[in-house]
Design the sequence.
C-alpha cells in the first residue's frame, strides 16, 4: 500500500508538463506578437499609443507564460525530481517557495496590465478605480507573503 501511495506523486507529471507546454505556447505567441508590432512599426509607422498597448499585451502573455513555467517546474521539482538542475533563484523547496515566486510574477503581470490600461485610457476616472484595485491586490499579496514568512519563522 505504501508503494502505491508513493507512486501517486507521479500523477503531477501530467499537469507539470501541460503547464510547461502552455508556457512555451504563450511565450512563442507573445514573442511573435512583439516581432509583428516591430515589423509593422517599421514598414508603416502608425499610432505610437497603439504600438505600446500591443507590446504590453504581448509582454503580458509572456509573463503569464513565465507563471506557467514556474508552476510546471515547481510541481515537478516538489513531487517528482528534487535534483532537477535549475538556477538557484528558481529552486523550489516547498509550497511556500512556489507561492512566493508566483506572487512575484502575478504582481508583475498586474503592473503590466495596469500600465496597458493607463496608456489606453481615455479619461482618468476609470483608471483611478483600476489603479486602486490593482494596488489593493498587490498590498493583499504582500501582506499574505509577510504573514506566511512570519508563520514559517515561528514554526522553525
Sequence:
Amino acid at each position: 500500500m505504501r508503494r502505491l501511495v508513493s507512486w501517486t506523486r507521479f500523477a503531477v507529471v501530467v499537469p507539470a508538463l501541460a503547464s510547461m507546454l502552455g508556457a512555451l505556447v504563450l511565450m512563442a505567441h507573445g514573442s511573435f506578437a512583439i516581432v509583428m508590432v516591430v515589423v509593422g512599426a517599421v514598414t508603416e509607422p502608425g499610432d505610437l499609443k497603439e504600438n505600446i498597448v500591443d507590446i504590453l499585451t504581448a509582454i503580458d502573455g509572456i509573463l503569464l507564460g513565465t507563471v506557467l513555467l514556474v508552476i510546471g517546474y515547481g510541481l515537478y521539482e516538489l513531487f517528482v525530481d528534487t535534483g532537477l538542475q535549475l538556477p538557484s533563484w528558481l529552486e523550489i523547496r516547498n509550497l511556500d517557495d512556489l507561492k512566493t515566486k508566483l506572487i512575484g510574477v502575478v504582481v508583475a503581470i498586474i503592473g503590466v496590465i495596469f500600465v496597458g490600461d493607463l496608456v489606453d485610457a481615455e479619461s482618468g476616472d476609470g483608471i483611478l478605480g483600476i489603479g486602486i484595485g490593482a494596488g489593493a491586490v498587490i498590498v493583499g499579496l504582500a501582506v499574505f507573503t509577510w504573514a506566511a514568512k512570519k508563520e514559517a519563522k515561528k514554526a522553525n
About this structure: The first helix runs from residue 2 to 7. The mean pLDDT is 86. The chain has five helices and no strands. The chain has one domain: 2-155.
